[in-house]
Amino acid sequence: MSRVLNNRGYISEATRKKVYKAMEELNYQPNELARSLYRRKSNLIGVLIPSVSHPFFGQLTYYIEYYAHEAGYKILLCNSGQDSVKEKEYIDMLKRHQVDGIIMGSHTLDVEQYANINLPIVAIDRHLSDDIPYISSDNYHGGVLATELLLKKGCKKVAHISGPLILNTPANNRYKAFKDVVTKENVEHFVVETKLNKFEIDEYIRLGTELLEAHPDIDGIFASSDMIAAAIINVARILNKKIPEELKVVGYDDIELAALIVPPLTTIRQPIKEIAKKAIELILDQVDGKKVATENILPITLIERETT
């Protein structure tokens, strides 16, 4: 049976059929862990994300699984909830399961802890070290396009709602671009940060309400995600602010729901499908012992809809 399952040595077709028939009658399932130890390859990839309920990470995970399956791999999905203890437990679990590599979409640990994993790793939107490849969209260019669009549409007092800047991720380049553009054009502006490790609509609504109540003459907002932008649209409705006449809004990501929001959201499209494909390619190249680039920046696109 072992020779049939592992396709080693000569086996006649008649013998092969007998073995498969016996396996079917006995409902035999090969011990994948034992086989992976023998082959030194499990064909499993760990995927660690902050929240599968977040539309961006939901879409990203879908495409990661799609491209992994195309390459003959399965994924083990871990939902960290932005909890460092949980993330460490999941990493330890993935190592015990002999995964061939880990795609890190959650990054709550110290950089040294990632360096000590000793497996092929790809990080999404986080530069962990010069030895760990990461993938990011062109956040700075996206921030420039979003901010310039608001000013081009006539906005005189603008705000950026950012993720927590203390994390020092490539996504912070959206904020840097916003600051560069408004400073260059001498436009009055505000920056608000979301809480660390939070992906909560209620938090976004609270921040948006406080911002627009304190500064009702703000006429343009660049949100660092479509989910934040959706919350701002909801706040504007509650405060009777007309979009786009009184308030223009630009998001970031272009999740599938962005086109269904009322009004449909102007946003910066991240190439989510391409990010997933690149993540799998980088993992498999490392598994095969190939040298890979540390920095992998993918292009973005401005998608104009009805909020500007």
UniProtKB/TrEMBL annotation:
InterPro entries, per database record: HTH_LacI, LacI/GalR-like_sensor, Lambda_DNA-bd_dom_sf, Peripla_BP_I
Keywords: DNA-binding, Repressor, Transcription, Transcription regulation
Residue ranges annotated for the HTH lacI-type domain, each copy included: 1-39
Gene3D superfamilies assigned: 3.40.50.2300, lambda repressor-like DNA-binding domains (1.10.260.40)
UniProt KW Nucleotide-binding keyword: no
Gene Ontology MF term list: DNA-binding transcription factor activity; transcription cis-regulatory region binding
Pfam families noted in UniProt: LacI, Peripla_BP_3
Protein name per UniProt: Transcriptional regulator, LacI family
Lineage top rank: taxon: Bacteria
Keyword check for Cell inner membrane: no
